[in-house]
Amino acid sequence: MLKSVVLFSVVTIAAASYSDSLARNKLVKLAGASFTDNVQHCLNQFIPNSELIQQVTLPCDFFQKDTCSGYIAVSHSDKSIVMAFRGTTGYTQLISEGGMTAFTKKINFAAGGKVAEYFFNGFDVLWQGGLKDSFLKAKNANPGYNVWVTGHSLGAAFATIGATTIVHLGYAPANRMKLYTFGQPRVGDSDFAAAHDKLGFESYRVTHHQDIVPHVPPQLFEGYHHHQSEVWYNNDMTIGEPYIECDADESKKCSDSNLIDLSMNDHTHYFNHSVSGFANDGCVITFKKYVVDEKLEAEVNAVWKQKFAELEKASVKN
């Protein structure tokens, strides 16, 4: 089926390599599967001939009572190795409360630029805790397979660092890497974004309508900057809805066009369904129904409107 796509606001038939079908039917579900402790059961519901290699769940540094999790799997039917991540409940709370302390410290990244230490440490504890060895095992056992990396929210930040690490270190060639993230925050600075873009692999940040998290940390805070490319659904993401593809690091033609009415509900729901709810419901074909928490929406908007105003005021002074 042909999709209605907008490239820099010009309507055309899908000429880019972004795939709504792949994002909707496979990758967002693979991201959602990271929220369960029974990943193989989840994979069996929508990926035929799949095998879980390893799931790693470990405490994260910033939220000491929380855990982060990721897994390596193989989809033989898609001839692809999967690496998927989830974040923490503490991160969602941090965003809801307008917290910025997790983003104040950045560290050097091997491929170039700097990334949030908070994001890097969360990824690295999982990577060194078993995902690296499991990825290399899966790759060596399945030469020629593509690599799919995905995640939602904080897991999207881990996925970006993971895909960039894999290609930079030569563990997989750029032409076999696909990175699709959902509700991704800004991960590092403009030098990191440039280093990521230079590697040349297929990379898409999928953003749902007024999702607040892609605007965090704000661009005016500590030099944070998105990498290419963004795919923005300025709608509820129902099947057949159009999307805008912005092949730039930051673009006012995509989600950066709105910093006023932002939403946590749009963050937790992609393709009109709850991402974490998919796992909680046993990874059945139909996700949980969309539920709007109007009180939470109002509270989060009030917090971040004030944050953006403060940062704008400070930037003018400087």
From TrEMBL:
Pfam families: Lipase_3. Residues 82-219 form the Fungal lipase-type domain. One of its GO terms (biological process) is lipid metabolic process. Coiled coil: none annotated. Residues 1-16 form the signal peptide. CDD domains: Lipase_3 (cd00519). InterPro entries: AB_hydrolase_fold, Fungal_lipase-type. This is Lipase_3 domain-containing protein. It comes from Panagrellus redivivus (Microworm). The lineage of its organism: Eukaryota, Metazoa, Ecdysozoa, Nematoda, Chromadorea.
